[in-house]
Amino acid sequence: MTDAPTPAETTDENGLADVFEQKAVRLAKRERLLSERTDAAGGAYPVSVPVSDTIAALRERFASLEAGDETGETASVAGRIVFSRNTGKLCFAALQAGDGSRIQAMVSLAEVGEESLQAWKELVDLGDHVSVTGQVISSRRGELSIMVSAWTIAAKALLPLPNLHTELSEESRVRSRFLDLIVRDTARETVVARAKVNASLRRTFDAHGFLEVETPMLQVQHGGAAARPFVTHSNAFDTELYLRIAPELFLKRAVVGGIDRVYEINRNFRNEGADSTHSPEFAMLEAYQSYSDYNGIADLTQELIQNAAIAVAGSTTVTWADGTEYDLGGQWDRISMYESLSDAAGRRVTPETSFEELQALAADAGVEVPEKIATHGKLVEELWEHFVKGGLERPTFVMDFPLDTSPLVREHRTIPGVVEKWDLYVRGFELATGYSELVDPVIQRERFVEQAKLAARGDDEAMRVDEEFLRALEHGMPPTGGMGMGIDRLLMAITGLGIRETILFPLVK
After folding, report:
1. Where exactly are the structural domains of the chain?
2. Number of neighbours of residue 282 by Cβ within 10 angstroms
3. Annotated binding site for Mg(2+)
4. 183-332+394-502 architecture in CATH?
5. How far is 335 from 8, CA to CA, in rounded Å?
6. How high is the pLDDT of residue 4?
7. 221-243 pLDDT, tens digit each
8. The whole model's pTM is what?
9. In angstroms, rounded to a whole number, what is the distance separating the alpha carbons of residues 500 and 171?
């Protein structure tokens, strides 16, 4: 096929001129179709067309046809033309359904007559949606086909498809995802994989007695994570509002209210940088389980991810886009942040290590942390990423984080200076995080006050004092394990794709 590129794929003036010329020709065909429309049918965009079967259903039903076989059965199918060849008295076209399945349409003089055959040649272009009716057969080359006895335009395409033999650039794929879905199997498969992942997550939660809820995306005060929010204004309330950075504080209110096992899958928004693992708008899963802790929630998270992998790949061993196999099965490692950092750095680092010692180690390693946000915990976490993160091969829970970077987490039950928090690393990036939740309202208030001081020093990601949340905690929250996981990143771990490929319509400039 030698169809012209879209404007998004074209950089030279001749190419753009070709596209505009094709559009002009197709507009003329549209006018002709509209002028020849009758009350019963026709036109460029009819309200309905004959469809008795899907292409996929016909392919499954007649999978055993031999070359040259005829079924004697008539079917009507519709699809987009992605290949076309006109050869005198017989025209061939490949019709593609939304799921990527294809069937061949054979339009012959003997079956449709001269007028209809000529109209096909003059009016039908690559990219058009058409409905064809005729006998289901297998061509002499063994291709499942419709020997067309009647056809009609279902929707006239005014712009040509990209060249199906040329790979779209990543930029074009994310900017024009509708074209990506038409021309690339992987794009459609990723959408299906995402749906399977979400369905699997819900099944697993269902099996454990969790309830799915929805919490506000517009909030009067942002919280639940260390991140810079998007700010907007409500005319109705004449107040400043924030797009939520996390649902945590509302989900914990639900736990206080007696919903002991609760989760949400929804959108979060963070006004920060975008790269291969970060998007300003992203899908997030958060879950809270009363009378559990960060060990129990780690077990649940492993089960959620492994079940999702099986739902997509049929196994806990997944195959990434580059062909690499990655094993998500088995029991995942759990390592201490401080101990693994000490081993990798070649010197002992503990919660008692002084700020000055950490600064010196960071300087020696070339790790930079802005002075306005530098704390013991920030330095430890940055040093850990420098020395340890890149060496993690298998899925790994990194346990026991510095206290001052985790204001919503319970202090460790036996190790002073750390909190019961883990981060799960898969493929070298953070996939999920889990906690033994801080439920003491007095300590929580103290933590919020410390965060407010950081905010006053210029830390845009620091939290504010949330009085409504504290009032809920003062009514009593049971011991609870909580976790958060990015759905987009879960797709990355299963498919090996970058974050913009896992989001159907990512934000682009």
Report:
1. 22-155, 183-332+394-502
2. 19
3. 423, 430
4. 2-Layer Sandwich (3.30)
5. 47
6. 35
7. 887 777 888 999 999 999 999 99
8. 0.88
9. 10
* CATH classification code of 22-155: 2.40.50.140
- Pairwise CA distance, residues 493 & 501, whole Å: 12
> Which positions ≥6 away from 57 have C-beta within 8 Å?
none
User: How many angstroms separate the CA atoms of 447 and 441, rounded?
Assistant: 10
**Does 463 score more than 80 pLDDT?**
no
Same CATH topology for 22-155 and 183-332+394-502: the answer is no
Contact 304, 316 (CB under 8 A): no
Closest CA to 92 of 144, 54, 44, 48: 144
Alpha-carbon distance of 221 to 15, in angstroms, equals 51
Binding residues: 423, 430
Query: Buried b vs exposed e over 316-344: b needs ≥16 C-beta within 10 Å?
Result: bebeeeeeeebebeeebeebebbebbbeb
Distance CA 351, CA 38 (A): 81
